[in-house]
Write a structure and sequence with these properties.
It is built from ten helices and eight strands. The strands form two sheets. It has a five-stranded parallel beta sheet, sandwiched between helices. The protein has a three-stranded antiparallel beta sheet with strand order 6-5-7. It is of the alpha/beta class. The relative contact order is 0.14. Helix 3 packs across helix 10 and helix 6 runs parallel beside helix 7. Bound molecules: zinc ion. The site of zinc ion has 8 residues, from loops. The site of zinc ion (ZN) has 8 residues, from loops.
């Protein structure tokens, strides 16, 4: 009786001990217990108005990998609510981002590298990532290549969402926003039932000043000039996948998935 009692308590002790051990292992090596294995590392390229941001969010949900938007990272830093591990010594440097953004200046590659490195060092990137808004030029692409190569984490694919210049122009310059509820319309592709009035809340629709045709044309030309070399760069590496970006959100998302899964098989 006594023996079995002490045997039972010994068993309990071992289980408890084992539990602690398990807990310790799971906390020290979380990747062992994650049921989300490595998925993919991809870059999304696409002009303003190509639907790149929307597609990036879609893919992030489908593949359960983080959507890393350079625009979002910069806005978070500028607003002082960044989750990046910014060291005290770097804080003043990064606070310049806010000023630069307010002036509409482009950030130096060095600053951009610092930000993207901080983000890529975060734990959730282990399973892969979708980069959106970075790289923007060849120097940035080379930096990313070196960074990933030194960690033995190569890119899997670069998706280029291809949309004709004229379509982009209409998509952006035709944009109307409800001043009350923020719903977005397009006078060419998704007009409101009554011109200038929101279908949902009957608020007034307005046109963003920087969405006028001339400004948009300039923006797209700058984008083209910077992005063409990137497309060639990744094409030469055999990573580029072109996807037709004209169509509804779901059909474009499906086309991207088909390309990605073709790559993986
Ligand atoms: Zn509205």
């Amino acid at each position: 009786m006594n023996v079995s009692k002490s045997a039972a308590s010994l068993l309990l002790y071992i289980i408890r001990k084992h539990r602690c051990l398990l807990l310790w292992v799971s906390m020290s090596f979380p990747s062992i217990f994650k049921d989300e294995p490595y998925k993919m590392r991809i870059i999304l390229l696409g002009a303003p108005g190509s639907g790149k941001g929307t597609q990036a969010q879609r893919l992030a949900e489908i593949y359960k990998i983080p959507h890393i938007s350079m625009g979002d990272l910069l806005r978070e830093i500028a607003s002082g609510h960044s989750s990046l591990d910014i060291q005290p010594g770097e804080a003043s440097e990064l606070s310049e981002i806010k000023d630069a953004m307010q002036r509409g200046d482009l950030l130096s590659d060095e600053t951009v590298f610092k930000i993207i490195s901080l983000r890529l060092n975060q734990a959730d990137v282990e399973n892969g990532f979708i980069l959106d808004g970075f790289p923007r030029n060849i120097d940035q692409a080379r930096f990313l290549d070196d960074w990933l190569a030194s960690r033995n984490k190569p890119l899997d694919a670069v998706i280029f969402i291809d949309v004709d210049f004229d379509v982009l122009l209409k998509r952006i310059s035709g944009r109307m926003i409800c001043e009350q509820c923020g719903r977005v319309y397009n006078i060419y592709t998704s007009p409101p039932k009554q011109p200038g009035i929101c279908d949902v809340c009957h608020g007034r629709l307005y046109h963003r000043e920087d969405d006028n045709e001339e400004t948009v044309k300039k923006r797209l030309q700058v984008y083209n000039k910077n992005t063409r070399p990137l497309i060639d760069y990744y094409d030469q590496k055999g990573l580029l996948r072109r996807v037709n970006g004209v169509g509804d959100i779901d059909s474009v998302a499906n086309a991207i998935r088909a390309e990605l899964e073709r790559k993986q098989s």
